[in-house]
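pinned: reference chain
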Amino acid sequence: MNLTIRWDSAEPVQQALMRRGSGESDELKAVKDASEKYYVISVQGLRLPRPRSRYNDNDDSDNDDNGQRNSKSQNDSLRTQLLDAAQLAPKGRSSIYAQDVQIDGPGGIDGVRFLFPRTNPISAGDKEVDFILNIRRVKVEEKFKLNDMQYEGKLAL
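pinned: its structure tokens
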């Protein structure tokens, strides 16, 4: 899997998205709205193995309402699994667990944003923070070195 993991709530990332032409995009709006209360980490390119179904998907295939309910149920299940699987781990401190997840595209194909509460702030003294995602036999870890995340003299998270 070829993934892009980005700290979207960081001001320089938001500025780059605006310059890229995403100024009024849904992606940038979602990040801006969440950034005051949350650290926002996005993952693009995540492809998860499909869970095995105990039911035959063809049983009610001609019933569109049932198909929509199944799709919504699967999306809700995926959202719950992603929410339970993500954490930020500042070095030497307790992990911060995702409080919300935003999924773009079917099955997260266009990206997944994880929202971590800022109630227990990360500081430059933490030195590094690991983003950890462990779901459906897929484990993703990305280390963010906080010294590299300084912008205009302050930590940009």
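why pinned: The two ends are 26 Å apart (CA to CA). Helices lie at 11-22, 26-35, 64-85.
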